[in-house]
Design brief:
about 20% strand; about 700 residues; 6-stranded antiparallel β-sheet; Immunoglobulin-like; alpha+beta; TIM Barrel; 16 helices; elongated; 8-stranded parallel β-barrel; single chain
């Protein structure tokens, strides 16, 4: 019996359950008809219902009796005129752009392209039915017991972010039950949470969990898209990471993961890809947006609507300056905050979202809309402030409510510890919060998300172990991935025996971790760096869903030692407000006495121009005054903290530092030394000087 159809409502878009059935609403400016098609568990199409109501470019209808778990898709008809950007094809089943769950995978052997692939002519329409090769949208119930959920609400200034892959984190963890490994439930398992708590991080930043697909060329090579920067659905959690099935179970499991992480005091930040989709260019498949309304969702080349603008290197760019696309992004962000309870977002290639016509603009509609949205006012907004288009490198240029991945921090810190000359002045800026990038527009040090490594590039262990990338397993003859000139080459001056080489690598790893955790700003630790996770030199492991990228939890003594070192560093940072200030340093206070910060040379004298301008200089000391904090306790009393002296030597040989007096005239005490491999946090009281070993860092304190 045909399902009964009522007019329904044009908003909200997508498939929304109510007491009578499900309201379906799809936006398309140029379509001539829209049908909702239903599928059974075997993937057979059982019925198609035309949406007869058409309001403000939205086709809508309330279909009675449709319940949660129902699989569906759209068939959209309209003009076939690729030269003018119209690629409607009723024979191609479409995933709902607002689908809240997606089941099944793309079958690249099916006719999922709207044009004739055999001829390669994207102007020639293909009339074969694609339903067998297209994932299905799923009607989802929003019922979930959020009782007791309380967001940790950790301030960004007090955050330590842990970038992590949902699957890779727990896939090999023997403490997690095997059916849960590699899933949302695996990340939220007590063993997983216990590790994160012991490490001391405050937030997990998840690599993309919006539902994505595997690229066709990867499938042909027996590979898959591991990172997930290939989005199909902006409202649906990736079904691959669900231990509860893909017909709505992934939604419930994701929510439970968030609830469990919150209960442990851990925030959840999502890496989101709103700059492009998985449909590629004019030769890509038709899976959703392209068939729903191509000219609405994508940016076309000026004067040539057959082809797509590509600021992302993926074939297409979302048309964010179109009101409906901007609305979709905002609806998606609000959905993940309101319905899924996430705490923030990291925006992939965010400069693309800020392009009005072609230039990146702080005044873009995207920024303005987010800035005034009350739902998004209190969440964390982090930009990857670049894309691959002209003028796309925008570090330091985002609006005041945004934090940024500080690419300059990564590059400078790597070059400094590698031993490159002329890095001292820039290194000083990065160590103290990058005031040159963020202070001029009213932002704070926590606008700088500091990182040494991330998912894209070498792991930290590989950074100190390999001179060149080794991406042969990716099937592109090692031509993919960045030519990373900042990996560390020990050169002729380095040791030659294995034990000394390993000790030096571990020391360099500690130098990077110590610098990261002692820098002002917000540290982001790439997951696994704290246990020397290696990808065997692969610096572009986006397609390696295997033991190369999955975390190895079989920790030997050096890896356990590094984990303990990292955890103590994080604990040290978070227990001392002087190490993560909320405001930029001032050289002098209003009385003209010693200010927040001072720089000293190895003679115990404050730096002058000759020190800063000496390109060969690789040693310095940073003084942090604990008596000048602008922090108050809950009663409003001024907080004071220990003062610290950070002694840094990137030269290969040891250097003697003469120590300046502490503000309390107390003796300086050693808190941490990166060259003490067996006991780096051994306390020791000093007199007037200390020798800092080659390529090492020493932290001193005047506290007890």
């Amino acid at each position: 019996m045909p399902r009964k159809l009522l007019p329904g409502r044009p908003y909200p878009l997508g498939a929304k359950l109510n007491q009578k059935g499900t309201n379906f609403a799809l936006y398309s400016e140029h379509a001539t008809s829209v049908e909702v098609c239903f599928f059974d568990e075997a993937g057979n199409q059982t019925e198609c219902v035309p949406l007869k109501e058409h309001t403000a470019f939205v086709y809508h209808g309330l279909i009675l009796g449709v319940k949660a778990g129902q699989r569906y898709g759209y068939r959209v008809d309209g003009p076939w005129d690729p030269n003018n950007g119209y690629r409607f094809n009723k024979n191609k089943l479409l995933v709902d752009p607002y689908a809240e769950a997606i089941c099944g995978i793309v079958d690249w052997k099916q006719p999922i392209f709207s044009y004739d692939v055999a001829s390669g002519d994207d102007l020639q329409k293909d009339d074969q039915d694609s339903a067998a090769g297209v994932p299905k949208s799923v009607v989802v119930s929003h019922q979930f017991d959020w009782a007791g959920d309380s967001k940790p609400d950790t301030s960004l200034a007090d955050s330590v972010i842990y970038e992590v892959h949902v699957k890779g984190y727990s896939k090999r963890n023997p403490m997690v039950p095997e059916p849960l490994r590699g899933t949302y439930a695996g990340l939220a398992h007590p063993a997983s949470i216990d590790y994160l708590k012991r490490l001391g991080v405050t937030a997990v930043e998840l690599l993309p969990v919006h539902h994505f697909i595997d690229d066709g060329h990867l499938v042909d090579q027996g590979l898959s898209n591991y990172w997930g920067y290939n989005t199909l659905g902006y409202f649906a959690p990736m079904a691959r990471y669900s231990s509860s099935g893909d017909v709505g179970g992934q939604v419930q499991e994701f929510k439970q993961m968030v609830k469990d992480l919150h209960a442990a005091g851990l925030e959840v930040i999502l890496d989101v890809v709103y700059n492009h989709t998985c449909e590629g260019n004019q030769l890509g498949p038709t899976l959703s947006f392209k068939g729903a309304c191509n000219t609405t969702y994508y940016r076309m080349v000026d004067g040539d609507c057959r082809h797509y603008m590509d600021y992302t290197g993926t074939g297409n760019t979302l048309n964010v300056h179109h009101p409906q696309v901007l609305k979709m992004l905002m609806d998606s962000l609000r959905y993940w905050v309101i319905e899924m309870h996430v705490d923030g977002f990291r925006f992939d290639l965010a400069a693309t979202l800020a392009r009005e016509l072609h230039d990146v603009s702080k005044l873009s509609a995207f920024f303005d809309t987010i800035n005034q949205d009350p739902v998004l006012a209190d969440i964390k907004l982090i930009a990857e402030p670049w894309d691959v288009g002209e003028g796309g490198y925008q570090v330091g240029q985002f609006p005041i409510v945004w934090a940024e991945w500080n690419g300059k921090y990564r590059d400078t810190v790597r070059r400094f510890w590698k031993g490159d000359e002329g890095q001292l002045s820039d290194f000083a800026y990065r160590l103290t919060g990058s005031s040159d990038l963020y202070q001029h527009d009213g932002r704070k040090p926590y606008a700088s998300i500091n990182f040494i490594t991330a998912h894209d590039g070498f792991t930290l262990d590989d950074l100190v172990s390999y001179d060149d990338k080794h991406n042969e397993a990716n099937g592109e003859n090692n031509k993919d991935g960045a030519n990373d000139n900042d990996s560390w080459n020990m050169g002729a001056e380095g040791p030659t025996d294995d034990a000394a080489i390993n000790e030096l690598r571990e020391r360099q790893t500690r130098n990077f971790l110590a610098t990261l955790m002692l820098s002002q700003g917000v540290p982001m630790l790439a997951g696994g760096d704290e246990v020397a996770r290696s990808q065997l030199g692969n610096n572009n492991a986006f397609c390696q869903d295997n033991e190369l990228t999955w975390y190895d939890w079989n920790l030997d003594a050096p890896r356990k030692r590094l984990m303990d070192f990292t955890g103590k560093l994080i604990q040290l940072r978070l227990s001392h407000p002087n190490l993560h200030r909320r405001n930029f340093f001032q050289d002098r206070d209003v009385r003209g006495s010693m200010g927040d910060v001072a720089w000293y040379n190895t003679n115990g004298e404050q730096f002058d121009d000759s020190n800063w301008n000496a390109v060969w200089n690789k040693s310095l000391a940073l003084f942090l005054n604990g008596m000048t904090l602008d922090t108050a306790d809950e009663e409003g009393n001024k907080v004071e903290d220990d003062s610290f002296l950070i002694l840094i030597n990137a030269a290969p040989d040891g250097v003697e530092f003469k120590l300046p007096a502490s503000p309390t005239n107390s003796k300086w005490k050693v808190v941490m030394k990166t060259d003490n491999i067996t006991d780096p946090f051994a306390m020791a009281q000093l007199d007037a000087e200390i020798v800092v070993g080659g390529r090492s860092l020493v932290l001193l304190s005047d506290g007890k």
